[in-house]
Design goal:
By secondary structure, the protein is an all-beta fold. The protein is built from no helices and nine strands. It has a five-stranded antiparallel β-sheet, with no helix packed on it. The chain has a four-stranded antiparallel β-sheet with strand order 1-7-3-4, with no helix packed on it.
């Protein structure tokens, strides 16, 4: 929650948010989110959701290829097998918070398996840094 601190972000994909499997996931990062993101900092996990008495945690890491563009404004996730509709999954980012506080909106587009390779809006995550 603080500037320049080590942080672990869970960009959750819940079953109610998905109607089809996900072949490719694109995450738009705001251009003013000035934190270094590398593919080594990213993981795709099957999650166990937490609650009031427990934290959300990664139950199983799934093999995936991550690509981050040069301007650090897009993350592309290519899972080895499509992400199924059941279960909760997340893109986990282990990075340092940006040096500027504010609210950052990450948007997700998902491409479903099929004949037409069209990505549809999946949802957004808001991250607030003090």
């Amino acid at each position: 929650t603080r500037q320049l601190e080590r942080a672990e972000y869970f960009l959750m994909l819940r079953p109610k948010d998905r109607k089809t499997a996900i072949l490719k996931l694109s995450i738009a990062v705001p251009d003013y989110f000035n934190s270094k993101i590398t593919p080594d900092d990213l993981a795709l996990c099957r999650m166990e959701l937490g609650g009031m008495l427990s934290r959300s945690r990664c139950k199983e890491k799934l093999p995936a290829v991550f690509e981050v563009n040069e301007k650090q404004t897009a993350i592309e996730v290519f899972p080895d097998t499509p992400i199924p509709t059941g279960g909760t999954y997340a893109v986990v980012m282990n990075i340092f918070n940006p040096n500027r506080g504010g609210m950052f909106q990450f948007n997700a587009l998902a491409q479903a398996p099929g004949d037409v390779p069209v990505a549809g809006y999946l949802g957004s995550w808001l991250i607030d840094i003090d």
